[in-house]
Amino acid sequence: MKFLNFYSGEKIHLGIKTEYGIIDIQNNDQKKNSLDHFPIEQVIRSWGEIRPFIEEILVNHSTAIPEETLHFAPAICHPEKILCVGLNYQNHIKESKMEIPKFPVIFSKFNNALAAHKEKITLPNSAQKYDYEAELVIVIGKEGKNIKREDALSYVFGYTIGNDLSARDLQMRTSQWLIGKSCDGFAPIGPYLVTADEINPDQLDICCEVNGEIRQQSNTKHMIFNCADIISYISQYMTLKPGDIIFTGTPQGVILGYPESEQVWLKSGDRIRISIENLGTLSNTIA
């Protein structure tokens, strides 16, 4: 199932992508089955109970919204945690001139960084070296602590696409990356949240284009630490909660990895498109 969040007036509604268009399950004509006021976070927490109602709505709906008319919201709006993995593809480590980590490199972003599909990202005036990072994003489905690696993927609700936007000059200013990673709008996610039963996270093609030019092209099979490794590792130190999101790292091809004379940083008007197999395409324009 492909969920998405979109604006209806000033409110965020939850929809499902179908071959006929988008079904608004919070404004559905089958009133007895309506899921009014159920945000995606509530659906994730209560998926076992809510799923039959959603499946009935999909069978009985009579109207669908054309997707091109939607004003998207982030695929997850209120995560307790936004966690990110750095240096998780060998070729990206080489281009960054860093050592292969013995453990996953974990950093965080905050909710202010969340942005939606098609949202314009306004760059702050406090930096100059703005970069893209195409990433597979895990969305946790149930609470877990000290999760065994072999059980880890059973804790996943679904997957989405993320762009770990970075201000490299701020990121490298100190040993802590936070300021360069968590500016407003620096974590676009979406357009869809695809349930885990439809995705093999270890075999997904991933691609990033800037103004139509391919900059990154790889496959999640090249991760140093795969999704199960990441979930298990993080859960040894903090309890994962439903709706938590985890950016899993980016492959080679970021601007930082270019020779210094060839580094052309993101600027106003640039369009970034990130595509991941079976998950769709996340598109944002720099404002």
TrEMBL record:
Gene Ontology BP, a term: carboxylic acid metabolic process
InterPro entries according to UniProt: FAH (IPR051121), Fumarylacetoacetase-like_C (IPR011234), Fumarylacetoacetase_C_sf (IPR036663)
Superkingdom, natural source: Bacteria
A Pfam family annotated for this UniProt entry: FAA_hydrolase
Alphabetized UniProt keyword annotations: Metal-binding
Record's keyword annotation contains Protease: no
Every Fumarylacetoacetase-like C-terminal domain range: 81-286
Signal peptide coordinates: none
GO molecular function: isomerase activity; metal ion binding
Transmembrane domains' residue ranges: none
Listed SUPFAM superfamilies: FAH (SSF56529)
Annotated coiled-coil segments of the chain: none
PANTHER family per record: FUMARYLACETOACETATE HYDROLASE DOMAIN-CONTAINING PROTEIN 2A, FUMARYLACETOACETATE HYDROLASE DOMAIN-CONTAINING PROTEIN 2A-RELATED
UniProt family annotation: Belongs to the FAH family.
Protein name per its UniProtKB record: 2-keto-4-pentenoate hydratase
